[in-house]
Amino acid sequence: MLISLPYSESEYPTREWRLRDFEMGRPLGKGKFGRVYMVRTKEKPHFILALKTLYKSEIVGAGVEKQIRREIEIQQNLRYPRFQSTWSPV
Hints:
Blueprint (H helix, E strand, L loop, with lengths): L2 E2 L17 E9 L3 E8 L6 E7 L1 H7 L2 H12 L6 E2 L6
Antiparallel strand pairs: 1-5, 2-3, 3-4
């Protein structure tokens, strides 16, 4: 998950996220293997984020596991000041 951070990391240090840490909002988009939702963190400072969900059954059915793993690896290695690293329970 990419998280846009309006504050410096020193103010709000990096933490491990769980799905229960977010309030689900409206859908933002839909792709072949997943959906994107607007979410908000339950704890202050209540960041508003985009959460991409992928459905394992659709990925396995289409045989694109390697491509999805590669996408996750690429996003985890992105370094940009306004984005948090990708979070993945895999």
